[in-house]
Q: What sequence folds into this?
């Protein structure tokens, strides 16, 4: 009974992502405090309002431009496995660097929750975060939590619930690039759309092609290979 | 139109600085978001982290603190594990008597009792009583250091040394992981972004003694190296010997890295970035419980799973006779001359070969081999244990050689499988087997021949 | 105001603030540095040297990142005077 949804956790290393994962799932899994600690994908379930949220702890990465195998694992999961919701965990004390990853995720997929962790530490350091302004600027829910003290979990789970039921619709505000880049995107985006359809964000794939991301190219070829035969 | 054609078209449109522009745009937006949605009052600084870094990465205290931490970690593990280990051994020993009584009550054939009690039960309970207490101390303590954020500082302090041998500072982190489990450490080398340095970290990881070898090292060190000391001093001497062995392993790591980066893995050190995250007080209770339950438990379960079949197999080998010699004895006699050359013996070589699936079972297999000759039937305490070794002609030299062989020899089966999975190369996996094996043979050989030449033994 | 002084990150003294002007690196390393926030215009603070002198830790986009001299000598920026 009840339906099951896949929820991916993404984030920089050292953001307490694994702490959140452990606290939510209760799964016996150890968390680390160094870069790239979560090396294989840990998974665990959370029951909420008769639904099962199947949580996947993606590797902690600084970026999703596939510079390393961890980044590729995280990127491929979000893009090709299409979790129902992607929760991006951010460290409240270094949001500037953390938003970089969040913005990349928002370019790839729609159903995203920005989850600002370590809010208690940030408050002690005199950092006040206005999540409403951030929600407004990003177009997706922004939630403040403290995974260590299990604060903000009801709000997080409720937001996940409302996204999977369709009560909230995420409308990520697209990243605007300099005109020069935007023009190039416009040139190839329609052709990319012909190829990948609604399966992937055509805008995002165009951007990656312009950036020369060959690994993504191989991945798309593998997964969409059949379509090519038809044409 | 295929995606390749699209790619070509995109590349013609693209410019070299496109990635810069994209990332710069992302950062500008991040910066804007922060200035709009976030207020920074008081100092923006995490002064505690700065103060701690001034100590932990200080030119004067940095290295002494690191060595002290390593020493304390080992001392806690060794001293703390002593009593629970012997208690467990006693408990299992007394339980065995009941089991034996039960089997004779059922009138089961002798071989059933042999396989199940003398083989399976003894082998697995040995693994539990020797492995569990050190693991239950080592993993949680290590996890606390790790969660606190100290380990990246080790990488920061050590990087210069690693760079000199052509390796990556983060290798110190994967080595630290290796103290727990080499198989897990091989996977953790993914944190090293550049392929060349990562390969170095993979190939040299097993020179760090993993949990499966702790037991062997600790038992031998306390039986043979610290034999003349008692009480707290004994643990201290044992710790000293272990730290020495570990240091030797680290020296070999540096040496092998250096040789490899001058030969098979030539190239300049590349791609170095290391984040120094803020120190954060770990949730002590959570960390301890979680790491005991996950790491200790899973490593133990794996050990038992591997130990059980190996224990049965060893018992069977030791009890199936061809003529008047058991299969085990044939193998032992065959290996004996070679073992003697290294200051070891046929039993020890046999134990290491049968112990390929997991290092945890090397010592139990060795004991079963020794015991199958019928010189002793029960091991109630460490004193008996030493007697078994002495009866088979052991000296401090044998112990030292076995410790070194254990430290240096080929990675366990699980680690080799992981190396193959991570490198996807048979050649490198084979090298990961070959390099340590050659060194593990050469070092005891040289030591033994030297000692014999000068007549010290 | 005086002429802006361009220095390499590796030559920065502890406490210096440097506004990045150029990265003279290519390939994966360049991309990695960009991802960590070493982008043109970003302000970097020199935090401390490792006990053996190299690597050096820098504060960039609210995090602390250590770089070897091979990389930090390829990043240039304007040394900012106090109060700027």
A:
């Amino acid at each position: 009974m009840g339906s099951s949804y896949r929820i991916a956790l993404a984030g920089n290393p050292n953001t307490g992502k694994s702490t959140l994962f452990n606290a939510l799932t209760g799964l016996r899994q150890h968390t680390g405090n160094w870069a790239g600690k979560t090396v294989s994908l840990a998974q665990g379930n959370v029951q909420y309002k008769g639904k099962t949220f199947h949580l996947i702890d993606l590797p902690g990465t600084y970026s999703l431009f596939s510079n390393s195998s961890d980044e590729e694992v995280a990127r491929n999961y979000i893009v090709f496995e299409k979790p129902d919701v992607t929760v991006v965990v951010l460290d409240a004390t270094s949001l500037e660097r953390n938003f970089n990853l969040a913005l990349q995720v928002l370019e790839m997929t729609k159903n995203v929750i920005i989850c600002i962790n370590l809010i208690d530490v940030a408050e002690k350091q005199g950092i006040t975060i206005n999540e409403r302004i951030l929600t407004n600027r990003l177009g997706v829910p922004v939630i403040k939590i403290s995974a260590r003290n299990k604060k903000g979990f009801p709000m997080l789970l409720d937001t996940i619930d409302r996204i999977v039921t369709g009560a909230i619709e995420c409308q990520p505000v697209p990243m605007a690039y300099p005109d020069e880049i935007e023009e190039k995107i416009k040139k190839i985006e329609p052709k990319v759309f012909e190829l990948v359809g609604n399966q992937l964000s055509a805008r995002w794939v165009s951007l990656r092609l312009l950036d020369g991301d060959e690994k993504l190219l191989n991945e798309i070829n593998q997964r969409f290979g059949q379509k090519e035969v038809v044409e | 139109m295929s995606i390749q054609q699209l790619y070509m078209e995109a590349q013609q449109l693209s410019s070299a600085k496109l990635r810069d522009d994209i990332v710069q745009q992302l950062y500008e937006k991040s910066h804007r978001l922060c200035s709009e949605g976030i207020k920074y009052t008081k100092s923006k600084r995490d002064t505690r982290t700065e103060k701690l870094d001034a100590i932990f990465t200080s030119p004067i205290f940095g290295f002494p603190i690191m060595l002290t931490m390593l020493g304390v970690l080992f001392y806690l593990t060794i001293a703390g594990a002593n009593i629970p280990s012997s208690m467990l051994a006693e408990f299992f020993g007394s339980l065995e008597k009941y089991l034996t009584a039960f089997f004779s009550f059922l009138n089961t054939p002798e071989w059933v009792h042999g396989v199940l009690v003398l083989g399976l039960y003894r082998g697995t309970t040995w693994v539990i009583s020797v492995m569990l207490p050190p693991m239950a101390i080592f993993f949680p303590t290590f996890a606390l250091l790790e969660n606190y954020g100290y380990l990246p500082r080790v990488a920061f302090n050590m990087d210069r040394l690693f760079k000199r041998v052509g390796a990556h500072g983060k290798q110190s982190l994967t080595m630290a992981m290796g103290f727990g489990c080499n198989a897990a450490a091989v996977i953790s080398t993914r944190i090293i972004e550049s392929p060349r340095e990562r390969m170095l970290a993979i190939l040299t990881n097993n020179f760090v003694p993993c949990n499966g070898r702790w037991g062997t090292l600790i038992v031998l060190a306390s039986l043979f190296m610290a034999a003349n000391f008692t009480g707290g001093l004994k643990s201290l001497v044992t710790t000293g010997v272990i730290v020495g062995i570990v240091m030797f392993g680290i020296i070999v790591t540096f040496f092998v890295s250096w040789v490899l980066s001058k030969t098979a893995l030539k190239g300049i050190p590349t791609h170095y970035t290391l984040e120094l995250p803020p120190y954060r007080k770990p949730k002590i209770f959570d960390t301890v419980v979680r790491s005991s339950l996950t790491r200790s438990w899973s490593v133990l379960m794996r050990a038992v799973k591997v130990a059980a079949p190996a224990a049965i197999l060893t018992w069977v080998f030791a009890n199936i006779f061809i003529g008047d010699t058991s299969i085990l004895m044939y193998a032992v006699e065959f290996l004996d001359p070679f073992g003697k050359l290294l200051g070891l013996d046929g039993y020890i070589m046999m134990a290491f070969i049968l112990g390929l699936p997991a290092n945890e079972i090397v010592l139990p297999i060795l004991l079963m081999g020794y015991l199958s000759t019928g010189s002793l039937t029960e091991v109630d305490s460490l004193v008996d244990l030493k007697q078994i070794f002495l009866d088979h002609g052991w000296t401090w030299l044998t112990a030292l050689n076995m410790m070194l062989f254990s430290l240096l020899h080929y990675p366990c089966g699980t680690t080799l499988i992981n190396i193959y999975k991570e490198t996807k190369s048979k050649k490198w996996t084979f090298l990961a087997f070959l390099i340590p094996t050659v060194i593990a043979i050469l070092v005891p050989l040289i030591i033994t021949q030297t000692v014999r030449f000068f007549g010290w033994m | 105001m005086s002429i802006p002084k361009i220095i390499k990150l590796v030559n920065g003294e502890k406490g210096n603030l440097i506004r990045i002007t150029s990265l003279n690196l290519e390939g994966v390393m360049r991309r990695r540095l960009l991802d960590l926030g070493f982008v043109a215009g970003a302000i970097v603070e020199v935090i401390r040297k490792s006990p053996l002198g190299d690597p050096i830790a820098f504060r960039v986009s609210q995090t602390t990142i250590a770089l070897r001299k091979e990389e930090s000598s390829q990043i240039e920026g304007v040394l900012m005077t106090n109060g700027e």
